[in-house]
Amino acid sequence: MKSQNKLGLASIILLGVNAIIGSGIFLLPNQAYSLVGSSSIFVFIFDALLVITIALSFAEAASLFTKDGGPYVYAKEAFGDFVGFEVGFIKWIISMIAWATMANGLATALAQIFPALNHRPAQIAVMSGIIIGLSMINILGVNFSKIINNIATVGKVIPLILFIVVGIFFVKISNFHPIVPANFSNQNFGAAALLIFYAFTGFESIAVASEDMENPQKSLPRAIISVMTIVSIFYVLIQIVSIGVLGPQLSKVTTPIQAAMTQFMGSGGLVIVALGEIISISGINIASSFITPRSAVALADDGLLPAFMKKRNKRGVPVWAIIITALITLPIALSGSFTTLAAISVVSRFAQYLPTILAVLVFRKTKKDAPRAFKIPFGPIIPIIAIFVSLWLLSKASLHNLIWGFGGLVIAIPFYFIMKYLNRKHSTNNNN
């Protein structure tokens, strides 16, 4: 029997699409084209295949667990408490930084449409309203979050579908020549692949709220694979239409989808895309507000964060995790200093990817008899490819970003030992 307080497969897929497709897709086409021209289409396809190898590892791992936490749970089960805490704690922090950045981005986007919001007090009010308002909606229950997430996802996807369906009729084949530009190089290809790869990130968050989903061991693998397929098709088609409509002009515009839509639909197209961008960033905020607190709940369940963080109300909502997450996220959003923090969050994602991929190989031995709703075909080949892909992409990051990105793992170490000490002390007092 289905629970009305749980997310079904369709809602999980929409949550995943919402968590991935954000403001980046409205800006990426021009940046990718500037690096490798029309070959950027193949970079999107290349990245889609690479990211899918990582996502498949998440799908197999998700089929073994029903507990909240996603990458944290997989790392803890495979490699122990310390590695699990490192992955889980960093994921929670990164998720809060990402949510803060998106709240700031939404305030900025709204200010472009409504000039009255283009001053600091109004920006503070908007960001506060976003974070506090979405947190309150989450406290009301999963149903409220599910409905709003579904509406936001559909709202953001419709303008992109319209862009593809209408724009395809205005594509000029001549705009794709030369398919390989004269300045093409492996370095440019790598830079473009790294840039575009970040547009696919977010799928790792889908498994974090397993306990709020119907039959997660079956639903999550299907959702992860479905989400990555949908997003990959969207991205490739958007790049094809962008190049086909704008041609060389694509590298000169700052808002490529708006520029292309205006060219074949006039000012009406500009309005549609602007609204789509607002809805898109809003959708990311909604997904973040739902997923981020669940990262804290998973840690609290295992005694790695204070116990009150895991308490749920009568609707099954982790109220304190939501409140604490909002209280930390809000000042980050209001600080306005996101350049370094964004670099940390981007590179640190691999602190979730690599342990999960490796965990799948471990589970093949330690849980070889456990029932799985999904198992990656071809033995260990795809997870091994995913490991090399991750290392290759990391090699394209700057040393500065690598130091800041993985420096967060060092910061987490004291918190781990503090909680272990407090738990031992609590256990000793109870025994006495």
Structure, described:
The protein is an all-alpha fold. 73% of the residues lie in helices and 0% in strands. The chain is built from 16 helices and no strands. The protein has helices at residues 9-20, 28-36, 40-62, 71-79, 81-113, 120-139, 142-167, 186-200, 216-246, 256-265, 267-301, 319-335, 339-348, 350-366, 381-395, 399-431. Helix 5 crosses helix 16 (399-431). It is globular. The model has no long low-confidence stretch (mean pLDDT 81).
Strand-residue proportion: under 5%
Helical segment count: 16
N→C terminal distance: 45 Å
Class of secondary structure makeup: mainly alpha
* Share of helical residues: over 70%
In terms of per-residue confidence, which ranges show pLDDT below 50 for 5 or more consecutive residues? none
Count all strands and give the number: 0
Query: Can you summarize the main beta sheet?
Result: none
C-alpha Rg (nearest Å): 22 Å
Mean pLDDT: 81
| SSE topology string | HHHHHHHHHHHHHHHH
* Global geometry: globular
Question: Would you kindly provide a brief summary of this structure?
Answer:
Helices cover 73% and strands 0% of the residues. It is an all-alpha fold and 432 residues long.
